[in-house]
Amino acid sequence: MEKDARTFVAGHRGMVGAAIVRQLKAAGIVNIITRSHDELDLTDQGEVRKFFHNEKIDRVILAAAKVGGIHANNTYPATFIHDNLVIQSNVIHAAFQNGISDLLFLGSSCIYPKLAPQPMREEHLLTGPLEPTNEPYAIAKIAGIKMCESYNRQYSTRFRSVMPTNLYGPGDNYHLENSHVIPAMIRKYHLARLAAENNVEAIAEDISCYGPIPDDIGAAIGYNVATESLDRGHKPRVVLWGSGSPKREFLHVDDMAAACLHVMELDQTLFSGDNPSFINVGYGTDITIKETAAMIAELVGFTGETIYDSSKPDGTPQKLLDTRRINTLGWQPRFNLKEGLHNTYKAYQQKSSGGNQ
Predict the structure, then answer these.
(1) Are residues 48 and 84 in the same domain?
(2) 194 within a domain of the structure (yes/no)
(3) What pLDDT is attached to residue 288?
């Protein structure tokens, strides 16, 4: 990548965008352009057009998106489809209008059919119905892939897309009503351990840092949200959605960021003609939710009970990406799950209380 090219990272405050900025800096890229939401509303077409016109950008990495877990996708489907469609349409079209040929769009493994063959290959896109719990988000991401592909066909741009598996790592979202599976588990087990230790002060610090505890989670760990007190006779437990049997693949966000830079260096012919216009990025193996929960409970130091609420949806039974294409093209992940979780929990603790918990 050209060291002095002006590179706009959309969504730099999110977990993925922040990791990409770290990777760019490590690679010696000096002209990194970023804007917060207050400075640039990517859902406002006029603002986006003005920004691109004024900044003379050379390269775009589109990591900005409205994201969340099963609960958030079920609760806010209109928000997920609208915001993501508008953001990506505004940015991709503005890039084209301003003569920017190099753009990387970040999608999601949820683009694949609910019952797609495992592991999921790029060719499996649009071969069956999507998982209903996140269909609006998935449709928006599919539209982003096809938008990049269409601009390449019509205007000979070099827009390409990467489809990451489930990501985790430093800077993740730990809000318990809209977080993904690993950050939700980390926080639930962390809070349950603190409750078991009768550490009300540490729970209060966690809340001030990562947001409120919903009533049902407070009840599970024996914490009264209204009075900010603990039921000393209650045995804290962790309640997780679903049966725990679905299998998921997890990739550390720093590995994802390294893959993004790698993909931007690849020859455009690899994304044109009969080749898929996007590429999977994953760890290559998966693990059940129950196994993941056990790893996190051990890491956090919680020895109490874990309950699985089977009245809540499991989501897709399995989501494993076929990563042979990107592996063949020279990229491999660096973190295994145990190392990645340790790295992530350490960052979580440092932010919440300076690492003293």
Answers:
(1) yes
(2) yes
(3) 98
Provide the pLDDT for residue 152: 96
Residue 68 pLDDT exceeds 80: no
Whether residues 98 and 165 fall in one domain: yes
- Give the pLDDT confidence of 246-297 residue by residue, as tens digits: 999 999 999 999 999 999 999 999 999 999 999 999 999 999 999 999 999 9
Given the residues 137, 168, 174, 345, the one annotated as active site: 137
CA dist 152 → 20, 93, 159, 179 (Å)? 24, 12, 6, 34
End-to-end CA distance of the chain: 41
- The residue ranking higher by pLDDT, 16 or 318, is 16
Nearest partner of 131 among 286, 280, 317, 323, judged by Cα: 317
In a domain, 176, yes or no: no
Q: Is the pTM of this model over 0.90?
A: yes
Alpha-carbon span 167 to 140, nearest angstrom: 19
* Percent of the chain at pLDDT exceeding 70: 99
The verdict on 15 and 32 lying in the same domain is yes
Whether residue 215 is contained in a domain is answered as: yes
Q: pLDDT at residue 92 above 80?
A: yes
Query: Same domain for 162 and 186?
Result: no
CATH classification of the domain holding 153:
3.40.50.720
Q: Considering its fold, how many domains does the chain have in total?
A: 2
Confidence of residue 354 (pLDDT cuts 50, 70, 90): low
Residue 239 and residue 305 in one domain: yes
Residue 312 sits in the same domain as residue 324 = no
Provide the domain limits for residue 153: 7-169+249-284+320-335
Residue 264 shares a structural domain with residue 349: no
Same structural domain for residues 240 and 279?
Answer: no
Whether residue 283 lies in the annotated active site:
no
CB 167 within 8 A of CB 253: yes
Tell me how many degrees the CA angle 136-121-244 measures, rounded to the nearest 5.
65
What confidence score (pLDDT) does residue 355 get? Answer: 47
Confidence of residue 353 (pLDDT cuts 50, 70, 90): low
Distance (Å, rounded) from C-alpha 23 to C-alpha 256? Answer: 10
Task: Using DSSP bridges, classify how beta strands 102-106 and 59-62 pair: parallel, antiparallel or unpaired.
Answer: parallel
Q: What is the C-alpha separation between 96 and 88, in angstroms, rounded?
A: 12
